[in-house]
Specification:
- The chain is of the alpha+beta class.
- It contains four helices and five strands; from the N terminus they run H-H-E-E-H-E-E-E-H.
- The chain starts with a helix and ends with a helix.
Length: 161
């Protein structure tokens, strides 16, 4: 009888420990994922408000710390890989800015931009070459559209760090 209680106690204790560890790890992953998605959103918002560029003069240290936290420097914004595509009123590409990315060629950028434009969503994700890109579509008052794509691998690599 005591042997039966001991085995039952060990099984219940093991299950309880497993549940506690699973809850802690799940919470850590959830918080990490939330912070990473907030960072992607903030970078896309900065890029969208500056027409797909990180302008050294208009982005101040105060602005960066306000959006990304007190431990972030102005220089850290330049670690991100991104590209921008601009459309006219009729949906034709007028400009492609791929100066901040090396792994995506012009044809792929054009295909990704047309795909995102047809989705008619303000935000989304797409994959190319095993990398996930978040995008933000911004409609201007004059009918023009800009789509900024951000490589999420830099942000994802920092999860749980």
């Amino acid at each position: 009888m005591i042997q039966k209680f001991r085995r039952r106690f060990i099984a219940i204790s093991t299950c309880a420990l497993f549940v506690v560890l699973l809850t802690i790890m799940g919470g850590m992953l959830g918080v990490s994922y939330y912070k990473a998605s907030q960072q992607v959103t903030n970078v896309l918002n900065v890029l969208a408000s500056h027409d797909g560029q990180i302008d050294k003069d208009s982005v101040t240290q105060v602005t960066v710390q306000k959006r990304f936290g007190p431990n972030t420097s102005k220089e850290s914004l330049f670690q991100y890989r991104y590209f921008s595509v601009f459309f006219d009123k009729s949906g034709n590409i007028t400009k492609i800015d791929s100066g901040h990315i090396a792994t995506v060629d012009q044809d792929a950028i054009t295909d990704m931009a047309h795909w995102a434009y047809k989705q008619k969503k303000a935000r989304g994700h797409t994959d190319y070459g095993g990398t996930t890109y978040a995008y933000k579509l911004t409609k201007k008052s004059n009918g023009k559209v800009s789509i900024i794509f951000l490589d999420e691998s830099v942000v994802k690599s920092k999860m749980l760090v």
